[in-house]
Amino acid sequence: MAARKLNKVPFVELAEGRLQGVVSSGSDISRVYVASVTAGTHGLSCSTNNNRPCGGLSGSWTCKHLDSLIDEAVLQYGQERVARFLRVEVPEGGRIGSALNGTRDPAPAAAVFSRFLRHLAYLELPGSATPIPELHWFPAGVGR
Known about the structure:
Helices cover about 30% and strands about 15% of the residues. The chain contains 4 helices and 4 strands; from the N terminus they run E-E-E-E-H-H-H-H. A 4-stranded antiparallel β-sheet has the order 1-2-3-4, with helices on both faces.
């Protein structure tokens, strides 16, 4: 399994009927984009953390942020699972982004960005063997 590029796509989730996440700007270190693809309709959304629309997303063409999000989701969850979640048919050897047939459909970004910030807060916690209640589901200490 290939390592994820956390500096490019630090947060990816399949939630709320969308593939969604946070993607770093390629040109401004202080700017991130919240990008999403809605399952079924393939509605495409991409905006900055300040709710400014992405200039690269137009009509049914994905922007580089959505392409990065989809690529990282495939690394994390596998192409079959992501395609099934989005309800898209991907030809053998094809890519999910090429099989989408959606249009620009702005989605709420605040909740996704808020969850991303909450996940960042866990990185600032000092190392400890004490359980963290929000992560009770995580199988800590399980051998691989």
